[in-house]
């Protein structure tokens, strides 16, 4: 399709149903290989499609529900100010990819309180780590300039056994009014068990989501 007529990238979370994606022609599997796309795609988010990542209608048969579940982590931004950088953190949208705690434990330590120490490493190292955050839960301000939304082409990457990693700013339309912390990148549940749908909250680890059945 001619770029002049291409639809604005958009992801619509259908009530008790799949994700309807329009205007995004870049989608990759866990190995980085390109997957088949179309101007409009319908992607599974109940976790049980036999054609994952594409929807096959199984959500209707199993009675999938897309509402948020009581007890989820609140959607709230906290600011951790250091000498050279301020780290912004919203636990409510975290997908628990764990790049932060694995790459920079001197700054991000879940066993400590507070768990974020903005002076625990150089500002450059912190920036490099925060840029790996796929959910938008982490961002930063440096020299008075907030950094939340990098500039990238619209794309969807499928994490092995995990969520859809969305980048490049496709508009998210959710019937419950959910909005991502970063309009440029966010993670969407595809195991069907997140307490914070449409966002991933890491529950795929708890339910041992078998994404090995993906038709990738």
Describe this structure in words.
The protein has a domain at 77-147: Alpha-Beta Plaits, CATH 3.30.70.20. It is 11% helix and 21% strand. The chain is built from 4 helices and 12 strands, in the order E-E-E-E-H-E-E-H-H-E-E-E-E-E-E-H. The chain has helices at residues 58-62, 99-103, 123-130, 203-207; strands at 10-13, 19-22, 27-28, 40-43, 77-81, 86-90, 138-142, 145-147, 155-158, 164-167, 171-173, 186-188. A hairpin with a 5-residue loop joins strand 1 (10-13) and strand 2 (19-22). The longest helix is centred in the middle third of the chain and has 8 residues, at 123-130. It is globular, with a radius of gyration of 18 Å.
Which parts are unreliable, with pLDDT below 50 for 5 consecutive residues or more?
Answer: none
CATH class of the domain at 77-147: Alpha Beta
Q: Would you identify the CATH architecture of the domain at 77-147?
A: 2-Layer Sandwich
**Would you list the SSEs in sequence order as H and E?**
EEEEHEEHHEEEEEEH
Return the structural class.
Answer: alpha+beta
Mean pLDDT reading = 93
Report the portion of residues in β strands.
Answer: 15-25%
Radius of gyration, in Å, reads: 18 Å
* Dominant shape: globular
**In CATH terms, what is the fold-level topology of the domain at 77-147?**
Alpha-Beta Plaits
- Strand arrangement, major sheet: 4-2-1-11
Residue share in helix: 10-25%
Distance between the termini: 24 Å
Largest sheet: 4 strands, mixed
The count of β-strands is 12
């Amino acid at each position: 399709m001619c770029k002049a007529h291409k639809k604005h990238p958009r992801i619509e979370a259908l009530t008790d149903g799949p994700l309807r994606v329009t205007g995004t022609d870049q989608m990759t599997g866990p190995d980085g290989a390109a997957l088949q796309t179309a101007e409009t795609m319908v992607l599974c988010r109940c976790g049980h499609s036999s054609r994952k990542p594409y929807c096959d209608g199984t959500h209707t048969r199993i009675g999938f529900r897309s509402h948020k579940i009581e007890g989820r982590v609140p959607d709230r931004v906290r600011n951790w100010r250091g000498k050279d950088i301020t780290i912004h953190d919203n636990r409510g949208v975290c997908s628990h990819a764990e790049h932060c705690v694995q790459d920079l434990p001197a700054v991000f330590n879940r066993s400590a309180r507070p768990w974020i120490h903005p002076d625990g490493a150089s500002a450059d190292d912190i920036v490099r780590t925060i840029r790996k955050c796929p959910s938008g839960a982490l961002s930063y301000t440096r020299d008075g300039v907030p950094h939340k939304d990098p500039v990238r082409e619209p794309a969807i990457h499928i994490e092995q056994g995990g969520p859809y990693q969305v980048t490049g700013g496709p508009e998210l339309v959710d019937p419950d009014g959910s909005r991502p912390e970063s309009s440029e990148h966010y993670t969407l549940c595809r195991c069907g068990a997140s307490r914070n749908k449409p966002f991933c909250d890491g529950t795929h680890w708890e339910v041992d989501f078998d994404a090995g059945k993906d038709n990738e």
